[in-house]
## 1
Amino acid sequence: MAERFIASYLIGETDYETAKQRALNITVEQTVEIPRDIVPAGYVEDEILGRLEGLEARDGGHVAAISYSMDDAGGDFLQFLNVLFGNSSILQQTRLIGLKPSPALAEITPGPRFGRAGLLELAGAADGPLLMSAIKPVGLSTADLARLAGDFALGGMDFVKDDHGLADQKTAPFSERLSACVAAIEEANGKTGFRTRFIPNITAHRGGTIERAYEAKEEGAGGVMLAPALAGYDVARQLAADPDFGLPIISHPAFSGANVVGAGCGFSHAFYYGTLQRLMGVDAAVYPNFGGRFSFSRAECLSIVDACLEEFAGLKPILPAPGGGMTFERVPEMQDAYGKDVIYLIGGALIRERETLVAACRRLCETVRAG
Amino acid sequence: MAERFIASYLIGETDYETAKQRALNITVEQTVEIPRDIVPAGYVEDEILGRLEGLEARDGGHVAAISYSMDDAGGDFLQFLNVLFGNSSILQQTRLIGLKPSPALAEITPGPRFGRAGLLELAGAADGPLLMSAIKPVGLSTADLARLAGDFALGGMDFVKDDHGLADQKTAPFSERLSACVAAIEEANGKTGFRTRFIPNITAHRGGTIERAYEAKEEGAGGVMLAPALAGYDVARQLAADPDFGLPIISHPAFSGANVVGAGCGFSHAFYYGTLQRLMGVDAAVYPNFGGRFSFSRAECLSIVDACLEEFAGLKPILPAPGGGMTFERVPEMQDAYGKDVIYLIGGALIRERETLVAACRRLCETVRAG
């Protein structure tokens, strides 16, 4: 028998027997996908079929613990995700909230290469918080974006990333922007002694995401950012698993939102922006901060932090990177919520200070690091 | 000025002024992602910034029509999707329901290579419905699965696909299964004169989806199936755009469900399983049928059919492929709902008749085609 891993689903049903039937349906739906009474005896029934391991009343419904065999996944990361939540993602009142992997998970994903400790080391920091900003808006020229990148670096930000909307637009094509921003940041680092790293957005069509990752490495980028919900859920893992790549990976939540904001369905915030990111080999996960333009609550954000940092299957802890609507005024509130293990992503509020950007960054960095 | 395309969002807000403010926020969120008052004048404000073109009360809220420049997408399909719904996918009570593309869409995606007409021609049918079944469950040996494929073909099904959970498991590795099923179906076709086509599941990690697509072609498969929500939203488009590939593409909804089943958020059923599929170059879209194991209503399913078949930007109409819980008894109900332009996906109900599968398929095909 192969090792088994256990997924937890919150089933929005208070009646035990009904919840149990729905849980048993999931054991079939996620594996054999034929009626239970015609599942072949032997290997298929004993090994491949999902197994209801527990069912308990919780959170206004029932949490079902269902185990699957590593043979279901057949060594493929996407098939592993498919077993966890392929068809059942279409069920209402059914939410994927947890995973207890088996040791054989290591055959499917190595997890993050850098994680929290690696990112701190690259940033030359004994501890966090770290700071990240984004060059934007789309439509600026390469020269303007590179100047912005240089100023962020002079101001002492740890990471300067592309806005997630910067792709290969004619005003600032990917390769040109990459070289110019790396050069601007290197020049700034030469003056300041800081170690600011440039993180280009590599999400691209025609298989270009992987190509741009290696181009970024060759050109001296300090990491890469991609949107897994657009580019696919195996791209980060593929890069994280490749020792020849060796750059940190930051994920962006673009196109992913509906996976978590629908009531009762989809993924818990913690699973999607925490657990799944670590499975994918992501080193820092961007997600919308509470109190900003999006609807995530403080509790939901802190559940993401826990899922990024908690002991999980021997995979490295990673850094949560809350962003969206962060301002200077909110720094104390953020510090209170997040403590040290966090990357603050601050974009618009700094760009508002464009005329005195370097000084504004310095002020922000000092405030945050004094924390 | 570049051409503009218009996305429609259903904003779940009855107050006009509040809905308007939320719509204006989307124009910013999806493009410049900096506060409106610091958007640079000139090209960025005039071209890149989203533009609210209309706002009308509908469906218990307001529908906002927002135009974006093709310059926002910069020729990249994933960035085009990102502009449509990247960050705004994270908003509650905000649903992407429509797209009016500009002629320049052709630079971003060619759409489906075969579509409805091409699939009918490949199947040698003057009109539909077409029939598709799936070999399963995971855990059967290659020999057993190939026998099943052969029997489906002897029974006259137009397409025999892999179950979406069949990846590269040791009991039936991809390459071995592909060859065996193609051979079994060819042998059956030789006896019957039918033109049954085998559709392997090519979804795979390590960039393997594209590799398996070409392997499928070389081995004589009749098409490929993939799960875009797992493999990424550009894989089908990449294959559809490649004249050297030239096989039909069927999409599977695995891992996609939370994008549509959350109330008020995500995508409309029609957009996700219809419009988006055509943009991706998919020729037939599998989705959960009404009255089966999932919650899609008859009206939601028929909205998908409309989005598959209606005139849309010069892209070929495609075939909807409802599946999940289809039985012999439901054929009249299906015929009433779907008419001729449909692929019926029937799996479990046929496998239940394993001992007399060929006869069961024949009976089903005759009933359905007699329509």
## 2
Amino acid sequence: MLVVMKHNATDQDIKRVVDVVGDMGYEARPIPGGQRTAVGILGNDGRVDSARLEGMEGVLEVIPVTHPYKQVSREWREENTVVALANGTKVGGSDVVVMAGPCAVENESQIMDIAHQMRDLGATVLRGGAFKPRTSPYSFQGLGLRGLELLAKAREASGLAIVTEALDPEGAEAVADFADVVQIGARNMQNYALLRRAGRLGKPVLLKRGMSATIDELLLAAEYILAEGNEKVILCERGVRSFDTHTRNLLDLTAIPVVKALSHLPIIADPSHGTGLRAKVTPMARAAVAAGADGIIVEVHPDPARALSDGAQSLYPEQFAELMEQIRVIARAIGREVAAPLPAVAQG
Amino acid sequence: MLVVMKHNATDQDIKRVVDVVGDMGYEARPIPGGQRTAVGILGNDGRVDSARLEGMEGVLEVIPVTHPYKQVSREWREENTVVALANGTKVGGSDVVVMAGPCAVENESQIMDIAHQMRDLGATVLRGGAFKPRTSPYSFQGLGLRGLELLAKAREASGLAIVTEALDPEGAEAVADFADVVQIGARNMQNYALLRRAGRLGKPVLLKRGMSATIDELLLAAEYILAEGNEKVILCERGVRSFDTHTRNLLDLTAIPVVKALSHLPIIADPSHGTGLRAKVTPMARAAVAAGADGIIVEVHPDPARALSDGAQSLYPEQFAELMEQIRVIARAIGREVAAPLPAVAQG
Amino acid sequence: MLVVMKHNATDQDIKRVVDVVGDMGYEARPIPGGQRTAVGILGNDGRVDSARLEGMEGVLEVIPVTHPYKQVSREWREENTVVALANGTKVGGSDVVVMAGPCAVENESQIMDIAHQMRDLGATVLRGGAFKPRTSPYSFQGLGLRGLELLAKAREASGLAIVTEALDPEGAEAVADFADVVQIGARNMQNYALLRRAGRLGKPVLLKRGMSATIDELLLAAEYILAEGNEKVILCERGVRSFDTHTRNLLDLTAIPVVKALSHLPIIADPSHGTGLRAKVTPMARAAVAAGADGIIVEVHPDPARALSDGAQSLYPEQFAELMEQIRVIARAIGREVAAPLPAVAQG
Amino acid sequence: MLVVMKHNATDQDIKRVVDVVGDMGYEARPIPGGQRTAVGILGNDGRVDSARLEGMEGVLEVIPVTHPYKQVSREWREENTVVALANGTKVGGSDVVVMAGPCAVENESQIMDIAHQMRDLGATVLRGGAFKPRTSPYSFQGLGLRGLELLAKAREASGLAIVTEALDPEGAEAVADFADVVQIGARNMQNYALLRRAGRLGKPVLLKRGMSATIDELLLAAEYILAEGNEKVILCERGVRSFDTHTRNLLDLTAIPVVKALSHLPIIADPSHGTGLRAKVTPMARAAVAAGADGIIVEVHPDPARALSDGAQSLYPEQFAELMEQIRVIARAIGREVAAPLPAVAQG
């Protein structure tokens, strides 16, 4: 438990908190910080009564043991974290960032074509899976290393930054060699070996919320990455499991303002996996921006009917173009801007 | 309807299924497949009871193909239903309608003040509970008939249309005498006696989705009202039960485009109950409009800290004013308009 | 909030609690009881710190505001409530009570036949719906009053007590005229007009848990009935909504020991609605008894394939006979007995 | 697979679906119906990707008929799989197997003491975590390799078989060197790299259901292990995420008979994690046996109040002794036996 003092708390205020904690049978340890002092409680078995402390002079708030994340919390760091990608894209600032591309890299012409289209329509990050986690062992599992090479080629040609998924600790190293952002998927949100490795890669990480993860669990998964020294974490809401069968998942857009209040990390939304249905992607992408998301990640395929995976939830490029127009207006309605398109790449 | 047979079902098993289907007055068509046979049922008008088939020898599962609702479905009627209220407000057309007001009518000055503020800020419908369904029998249950009278007075003074909840069949008659729209709350979504009475009132009905109702169940509840001859039904997404405790409910905004594809009825969203938290109401109201809602219903209270119910989720009037500005822009981004403010009421 | 004192707390202990509450800015009101004194806290806005009180001499426990039920709680009344039915069946004592019969009363020979079979196999209560709540307005809705008359006739012939559902306040009066136990179904668990009427009927009430009701909400619904003066309430776990489509609902058997710790009311389980699948009814009925349920309510039909409703989840009489054998052994394993069969009815 | 067309689909739409199905290498058979046409797909071996069809013009929905798992299914293999452990324990036969022990191995005397107690009370498998997956990076993470060595020592002294969790592919090798059964925890149920490695270890695997995994997903996760050549898989129900906060998870005991109908693999239940509350473990362990589980895995700690993890859900040894008595009777009620206690280990 952490007692956060007001920035103008006096030494006397802090001393009184320390005394009360001692009175409760625990040890208090003041932690002076840049803006304020916090008082940690040692030996807390989870039964410390926060209410007794909350009312004291000079106390801003008491962070209970049931929110055991620290470094990811806004209490720890008040200003938004802005994750800067190699091509200049900034996630978590005032820009709304658009990441787009196919579910999976299928072949060179597919990924090169879509990269150019996405760039021309205003996306600044290209998504595309090389390693695909599939519910069935018999489904298409991605091109693997060859997929990573094609993504790197697409980046060179288009200027887009690359985000692609890593499935296990060793794979994460390979992905980090090629990609600008290492994605950890929903199924692996609590794969702690992978989270720890991601924390040591030095590359930005896109961490997707697990299928039934609470928001606290999402933040604790991010805490694993920060605890290894990597603060460049982008969270992603992608829908949670629910009971209605009309959609693949239930996109929990309220998680966006909830996370932004609890944490300084950026959060984007994935309306493609969040709905599983092409016709619902555009309205929910708009809604995500209206709800305050720092970006969206959207599946677009040049020929969805022939996609090797997730075709039913991929937009046609024309639909994506219309979506871009709409979210430009919506972003402005709340004082933000969709990130500016990339400059044209010099053609050798 | 499709009856899927087990892979080791015998010819005798299949014949018995065919016979039972014939017995029900329909035609059965066996479809032999690679691994198993399926039996299609032709001419099914949606009234086949699958239970009789599910328990039969050799049957693996019965898959419904026809949706059980009819009059509410877009297949039944392709054009949007537009529900016109007495003060000219139209729900379900190109306008985005704003309904606003306190959770409960508390006294005359409260409801009169807020009515004028809501009208001046651009709402065209006033919400306010006279009969309150409360989880505990010991909580404030509303002013009852006196609340209805005050709502009528507020309508006269402001020009706003009135929406308020009915809790039981008799109450529905009283509500219909005073209100422009009779609300059926989430807890009563499958209160069939109340739905049937609402279907005979001749007044528009606002039907809220139950706390864990599927979209099909919501549409079937509406079907009860239409089946009694009342087509003036407005659906409302207000959040479903989920596992995260940061919010009161999980607002399922994807339900909006899903319902609009399945049904011709208008659908609005309630971000106040859908989140339960004042700070999340504005982003989720914006998101609802961006997702294509035909309107929003929002709790606003002149002094939320002293509200007799739901204070924690009520907006301050200033917050509501800012929300109106934002959704005017967002509505235009998708080719709609927030409904024009009402003309000033002539002061005798 | 209620501070429950130990039964041997001294006047001095109680005075100290009163003083501390005053110190907190609230008013304390001691409530002397048969076994112990409780101290109520008036003016509590929900922020009273229970921990400060919990540690005091003579205090047994502090019941927080977030459990706003009172009369249904074990704190209010320590001994189990035993609901006695007219035919001598006692629900909530050491006996495990079996209620069985068809989903719906369909005609005289069906209900008379099944009543005799159920009695002969050892059930002591007959279930059978006269008024059926159906998701679709076009499904079979029950025989109504005629169904009630047939149930009464079956009772006379068999000696079984009758449980059947009421759908609305007026219907509840009619049901109470004929039945021994008035059932309130899952869809109506928060139909407060119906709950209040049930509280004034003077007949035992079987209250089913709503489709996504928390245990606290179930207890609060029961509180509505007790608040009207009727303590004869039997709770029923019947499955909650979840995400897996293999079963109709997710039977939450852990709710049984949870409810028994929180409340003095009896609780039974409905494995028929809780699973929706005949082949799962027997194992889950056994599991319910093993988990400590005070009884089970099971659908049995003489010819499930021709049942007008719920055929797929109805046991054949032979299956029911086997189930009875198994639960007799299981009940004994935990020191209980399946209620003794009724004596033969004298044949005029 | 069945492709259901919209009621207003054109002949052209239907023809295109037929062509695409042919293109995929299967045969399409249109089934004209009363309201709409459906197109059956013949010869589908379970590898058809529905997404390609779902997005096509005129298609209402695509309904899978073939279950995507194969080797785990009872259609593939009718007889129960019996997993034999090194000490003679057989999981999946007529015996009900009891696995018991502490959440985590804490030190030598703790694990040796509890091993002897568990053996004497009739368990045949010892559980105990060496590598602990923890939601927070700051919680106790287990003794690691030292924990495995202590488990091996406890096995030698007690004769119990050992089950302990592996968190990642490399760890799985280490675990397999020491343990009799390699556990894959709920958080890792879809960690495909780990599943594949587990499939190549040659050791029995205990696979726990993910926190919100459907039963089909659980079976598909097992399919990953069988697809690598390892058939020795024991499934485990351990509770799914739900909305009630009284328990840690919602133990879905109906999954037991559901899995046993779909698959030949054994399934056990974990009432400790499934409830999270000591007082609910015993009733739910009994219920699991009554529901037909092939075993239970229960946390028992010599001093739960001082346990380094999961103390609140660990039984005292005396409680475990009483539970063993009860389940011996319950197992017999359904024609099974709790596995016979191990013979005493020869003391050198």
